[in-house]
Amino acid sequence: MGAHLVFLDESGFLLTPSVRKTWAPVGKTPIMRCFDRHDRVSVISGISVSPKRRRLGLYYDLHTNNIRHPQVCTFLRHLLRHLRGKVFILWDRSTIHRADPIKALCRRHRRLRLVPFPSYAPQLNPDEGVWNLAKNQLANGRPRDTYDLIRDLIHTLDRTGRSQTLLRGCITQSDLPPFLP
Fold it and tell me: Which of 38, 40, 44, 133 could serve as a FRET partner for 65 with CA atoms 20 to 30 Å apart?
């Protein structure tokens, strides 16, 4: 029996809108009015690749505070409940990924293996593509509050997770060597 690969990463989304491209009449600079609020939603996610059928999945968890090692441990336990067999987590070398509770979790769950990407190599992590898709979808939006931001984010991540094409695109757009059929 093969092992699941899970490409994992964290990202943050602010209430302050990110502005990409927009349209306006010639000579009229568009103005986007918003509150100067620094509320945020932190998200941890992982793109999973099944060992046999190479089926792709997206798992995620949202938090209104910064993600620390307890949230990472909870997410890893969630993955272990949903994925059978060995699970290889491929992620960056963030300090929260090297905390003692995470090492202890690996000792308790022998089927969990942690594989760090090389330092300063986000281009290797396909989960960065999930964040690019989400931030592009949410660009030029103006959520009123954290609830609106969470609702929009869940909608965007669910849409991405239902699409094998989008998830495959995240993997093929990364700088990983080709491994999907």
Answer: 133
